[in-house]
Amino acid sequence: MLEGLKRAFQELTNRITTSQLGESELSRIMDEFKLQLISSDVSLPTAEAIAERLREMISEIRLPRFGDREASLKNVYSRVLEEFLLEASPEELLRAVASRATTGARPYVLLFVGPNGGGKTTTVAKIAYWFKERGVRSVIACSDTFRAAAIEQAKELAAEVGVRAVSQRYGADPAAVAVDAIQSANANKEPLVLIDTAGRAETKKNLLDEMRKIRRVAMADSVILVLDSLTGSVAGEQARSFHESVGVDYVVLTKFDSDTKGGLALTVSHEIRRPLIFLGVGQGLGDLIQFRKEFLISRVLS
Ligand SMILES: Nc1nc2c(ncn2[C@@H]2O[C@H](COP(=O)(O)OP(=O)(O)O)[C@@H](O)[C@H]2O)c(=O)[nH]1
Ligand SMILES: [Mg+2]
Questions:
Q1: Ligand 1 and 269: CB distance under 6 A
Q2: Statement: 3-84 belongs to CATH 3.90.70
Q3: pLDDT (tens digit per residue) in 31-51
């Protein structure tokens, strides 16, 4: 996990501590660092912004001539990463859902969007499980009525979690399925509805219009963008297009267990300025961890 970013920072330290640090030398070092960030899935604009911020801070601090230059640098890196990464607390989401449940007006609605194969359906189930463990019952709306076997997959996962799934036939209007699920959650006093959606890429504009429609019709309280950490730098673009057309509140990065680069967390935070809330770290229901900047920063700089 995160070896790519880790190496980028290690090499930056090596270069800085073994050179006479004039302005032009520092610029050259930062250019190389930028390339390393890019090869670890950090998007170009994000890499440029990080390198620029680091350059500023490094030329400001007076690195001790002897002694622990490395520690001073790590301190700078840590502050910059801290600035760039955005995190949200799942506990806050839990409180929002719980407080909605006490007012009783309508269930809290979470809409999941993202490209095909990114891990939406799995994440919906993991989050239903996360809430269930905290005493919150939920309903899954099978609004991916497009992909073959999507409805069965969602239903099976719902059964595994022990929550209800509401579905219609393939080809049905995804927004109608969502509304159905919300009404039935209302009647059953389930305080939370999780809407699973389709993520086909080939009809991008239609897909985004469809997501926008579901958001409006279901009056979604929050939208969670689910992205595969192995997607590479195109994920930055994907994030932007979902954010611009549907609006994103939180991001979940999946398959973090097999991500050896680690740059996507930075890319997404910087490109859409929306916080990460969870990381998917495996295929099981319990393989979901709260995203903590500290966790990522300490690993990258360890
Ligand atoms: N290793 C790993 N696999 C995952 C994770 N999340 C999802 N997957 C797998 O990725 C594949 C696609 O997931 P799915 O939820 O169907 O994606 P969707 O098309 O966005 O709904 C499935 O085989 C999942 O088991 C994760 O965090 N780690
Ligand atoms: Mg799916």
A1: no
A2: no
A3: 999 999 999 999 999 999 999
